[in-house]
Amino acid sequence: MTAPPSIEIVSQASLKGFNSLSLPSSAEFFCSVTDEHQIQQALDYARDNDLTVTPLGGGSNLVLAGDIAGLVIYLDLKGISCHEFDSDVVHISLAAGENWHKAVEYCLEQGWYGLENLSLIPGNIGAAPIQNIGAYGVELRDYFISLKAIDISTGEVVVMDKQACEFGYRDSIFKQALNNRFLITEVTLALSTRANINIGYPALAEALGVGLGQDASTPKMVSAAVCAIRRAKLPDPEVIPNAGSFFKNPVVGSDALNELLKANKTMPHYPQDQGGAKIPAAWLIDQCEFKGLRSGNVGVHEHQALVLVNFGGTGTELLAFAGSIQDAVQERFSIALEIEPRIYGLNE
After folding, report:
1. From CA 83, how far away is CA 93, in angstroms rounded?
2. What is this structure's pTM?
3. pLDDT digits (tens, 9 = 90+) for 83-131
4. In what order do the strands lie in the sheet with 144-151?
């Protein structure tokens, strides 16, 4: 196989340093790209050699369950640009390889507000729409305008608006009908030049020392409070390998909620607009006594039951342990926990 001249194709490349769980895995072929031209070259190479393509960004929301066949393309595109600026709203476009938290900090420094509740979420910009990242009462779709992506099979560049992305709770069309079909290269958001504080989330209001919904002084204060909360309860992947929240918070219907509350009167729950309520997965896991539990080389973090950590295990070991948690929650509460990170290499 001959690689295109401006990109380097590496065979049997280790991916351990490219995933925040530090799971052992190798890519059959690997390359890093810094612009759309290099992406097209990489896709041409994959098509010419009949290779499947797997895009890779910050690696903070995936589980590598084994080696990855085909070509893994690491998206290292950089750049933040501002356009359509007026007195109240600014549209910004962010390249897929930009670090999410650093981009939030940059926007705050420029006086562009809205993303402060999403501070310190790990990963890069390109993964944000796939997951429809959210935290403390805010989701990406609240500020999303469009994204630019490249069709893996054809190389066609497309622009998709919010409706086309079909955002849901920690979900999008890129995890459903368009799973692994596009490489996202750029995301465009609409932010405000006026502070519009959102502190409707109880833990955030408590951290700021104000009542629910009351205004804090500045968006920077909100960002600092969010960072403090996250650092207090979530381990640093550089110190303890993890992928953040490992399970989605399940949403149950009204009837199921009533039955659950009969047996669990203190169970926390958050009513949803469409009916029913969201139940904290961490509470469910904690009630099954998994917090702080270690099983071989994997375990649950001692301070946050929603975070699975790796002490030197494999992806298959981690997924088996996650399955035991799902089984326990299902047996006790009749609730099916859904794994939040994307899983690669399971059937390679």
Report:
1. 8
2. 0.90
3. 877 779 999 999 999 999 999 999 999 999 999 999 999 999 999 999 9
4. 80-83, 89-95, 182-192, 144-151, 157-161
pLDDT digits (tens, 9 = 90+) for 11-23: 999 999 999 999 9
At 272, list the tokens: 């949803």
| Pair of tokens at residue 296 | 């071989």
DSSP letter assigned to residue 339: B
d(CA 178, CA 85): 32
Amino acid identity of residue 174, one-letter, is F
Query: Could you give the residue numbers annotated as active site?
Result: 170, 245, 340
Strand, helix or coil at 225? helix
Cα angle for residues 341, 207, 90 (degrees, 5° grid): 65
Domains and their CATH numbers in the chain: 10-75 (3.30.43.10), 80-232 (3.30.465.10), 235-344 (3.90.78.10)
Half-sphere exposure of 43 (CA within 13 A, CB side): 19
Residues near 226 by beta carbon (within 8 Å), at least 6 away in sequence: 116, 117, 118, 119, 120, 135, 136, 204
Which whole-number Å values give the CA distances from 64 to 118, 128, 196, 347, in the listed order?
25, 19, 39, 11
Chain center to CA of 23: 17
> Residues with Cβ < 8 Å from 347, sequence gap 6 or more?
none
Ramachandran angles phi, psi of 158, nearest 5°: -130, 155
Amino acid making up residue 314: T
Residues 249-283 as b or e (16 or more Cβ within 10 Å = b)? bbbbeeebbeebeeebeebebeeeeeebbbbbbbb
Q: Would you say 193 and 83 are in contact if contact means Cβ atoms under 8 Å apart?
A: no
Nearest CA-CA partner of 187 in 161, 168, 163, 209: 161
H or E element that contains 147:
strand 144-151
For 316, phi then psi, to 5°, come to: -65, -35
Question: Which residue is associated with the tokens 């994959």?
Answer: 46
